[in-house]
TrEMBL record:
This is Photosystem II reaction center protein Y. One of its GO terms (biological process) is photosynthesis. Belongs to the PsbY family. It comes from Anabaenopsis circularis NIES-21. The lineage of its organism: Bacteria, Bacillati, Cyanobacteriota, Cyanophyceae, Nostocales. It is found in: Cellular thylakoid membrane; Membrane. It is a single-pass membrane protein. InterPro entries: PSII_PsbY.
Length: 41
């Protein structure tokens, strides 16, 4: 099974960008959920 590294080179920046977006959006979403739960209590 031979891996074509050109595919990995093309997909790596896209995966990094997606991960960074999920990290940033996830942090904001977590803060929003915590604020909502604190307001309910």
């Amino acid at each position: 099974m031979d891996i074509d590294f050109r595919v990995a080179i093309v997909l790596a920046p896209i995966a990094v960008a997606a991960g960074w977006a999920v990290f940033n959006i996830g942090a904001a979403a977590l803060r929003q959920v915590q604020n909502f739960l604190n307001r309910e209590a």
